């Protein structure tokens, strides 16, 4: 696809799981391919709900063939039950991605907000407004979970090059440190050999 990367953004939720497919890779350009929501009924058993959302996400993965999956990192807030459901859905999606050998990357809500709006404290409406502008959509994606999923995908597209550069810099620094330690060790051994040779 000539340098274009396709990302599946997921705003995990048990009742509504936002899904957004975005193509990008040419600077800050990004195109919306698909957006929607996987739903499950609060009346159903947990296992059935996980299966319903998981099946829909797998359909999206097979239909749109993303190269990477970006999921919102869950934070423990006030409602523990909501967080548990969200974490379980994240696990189901990560498993589906692993089965297809797709890399999974987690982004925090503040990382997404900062990438999309320039402020880690932006509210949902600001994120929705910005993602609608960035992707050139004729109307705002609804519900908010769908807009959040698109924002996650774009956040990953824009952050990934920076994350790669950081990883490369860390790898180079680690290699320099290893080489430095090796040279120190060689110098110490050489010193010991010289001083050891002089001792009677």
TrEMBL record:
<keyword id="KW-0540">Nuclease</keyword>
<keyword id="KW-0378">Hydrolase</keyword>
<dbReference type="Pfam" id="PF02075">
    <property type="entry name" value="RuvC"/>
</dbReference>
<keyword id="KW-0460">Magnesium</keyword>
<keyword id="KW-0227">DNA damage</keyword>
<keyword id="KW-0479">Metal-binding</keyword>
<keyword id="KW-0233">DNA recombination</keyword>
<comment type="function">
    <text>The RuvA-RuvB-RuvC complex processes Holliday junction (HJ) DNA during genetic recombination and DNA repair. Endonuclease that resolves HJ intermediates. Cleaves cruciform DNA by making single-stranded nicks across the HJ at symmetrical positions within the homologous arms, yielding a 5'-phosphate and a 3'-hydroxyl group; requires a central core of homology in the junction. The consensus cleavage sequence is 5'-(A/T)TT(C/G)-3'. Cleavage occurs on the 3'-side of the TT dinucleotide at the point of strand exchange.</text>
</comment>
<feature type="active site">
    <location>
        <position position="145"/>
    </location>
</feature>
<comment type="similarity">
    <text>Belongs to the RuvC family.</text>
</comment>
<keyword id="KW-0234">DNA repair</keyword>
<keyword id="KW-0238">DNA-binding</keyword>
<feature type="active site">
    <location>
        <position position="72"/>
    </location>
</feature>
<feature type="binding site">
    <location>
        <position position="145"/>
    </location>
    <ligand>
        <name>Mg(2+) 1</name>
    </ligand>
</feature>
<dbReference type="InterPro" id="IPR002176">
    <property type="entry name" value="X-over_junc_endoDNase_RuvC"/>
</dbReference>
<keyword id="KW-0255">Endonuclease</keyword>
<dbReference type="InterPro" id="IPR036397">
    <property type="entry name" value="RNaseH_sf"/>
</dbReference>
<keyword id="KW-0963">Cytoplasm</keyword>
<feature type="binding site">
    <location>
        <position position="11"/>
    </location>
    <ligand>
        <name>Mg(2+) 1</name>
    </ligand>
</feature>
<feature type="active site">
    <location>
        <position position="11"/>
    </location>
</feature>
<dbReference type="InterPro" id="IPR020563">
    <property type="entry name" value="X-over_junc_endoDNase_Mg_BS"/>
</dbReference>
<comment type="subunit">
    <text>Homodimer which binds Holliday junction (HJ) DNA. The HJ becomes 2-fold symmetrical on binding to RuvC with unstacked arms; it has a different conformation from HJ DNA in complex with RuvA. In the full resolvosome a probable DNA-RuvA(4)-RuvB(12)-RuvC(2) complex forms which resolves the HJ.</text>
</comment>
<protein>
    <recommendedName>
        <fullName>Crossover junction endodeoxyribonuclease RuvC</fullName>
        <ecNumber>3.1.21.10</ecNumber>
    </recommendedName>
</protein>
<feature type="binding site">
    <location>
        <position position="72"/>
    </location>
    <ligand>
        <name>Mg(2+) 2</name>
    </ligand>
</feature>
<dbReference type="InterPro" id="IPR012337">
    <property type="entry name" value="RNaseH-like_sf"/>
</dbReference>
